[in-house]
Design goal:
Length: 111
């Protein structure tokens, strides 16, 4: 029962961080980080998948998982350990916003 509240509780600090961040702050580096997460990571995931001779649903799961946006958990960890939480929050937000555009073709390619 307590576990069901974990995601909503993690979204709270994400929203609080987003409220404090100016819109144009570091947009170039944030965009680059989101691009690497959404486009480069799936391409890199194909290399070990090929080496391990993965095929079928195992290959699909690995590539799609590598294509997912940056998780909210990273924001919580960045806030906890004071490691550029504004930057991390911006990457989480932008990668989540852009993920439908990148995930759709990746899912179509591995299906």
């Amino acid at each position: 029962m307590v576990g069901k509240g974990a995601v909503p509780l993690m979204l709270l600090p994400l929203g609080m961080q987003l409220a404090k961040i100016p819109v144009a702050q570091g947009i170039g580096i944030v965009g680059l980080a989101a691009f690497i997460r959404l486009a480069v990571a799936p391409a890199i995931a194909l290399l070990p998948a090929d080496w391990l001779n993965l095929a079928g649903s195992t290959l699909q799961a690995c590539v799609v998982e590598a294509s997912m946006p940056t998780a909210v958990t990273t924001t919580v960890l960045a806030i906890e350990f004071v490691v550029k939480p504004e930057f991390v929050t911006s990457v989480v937000f932008l990668s989540t916003l852009a993920s439908p555009v990148t995930l759709t073709p990746i899912i179509a390619l591995v299906s």
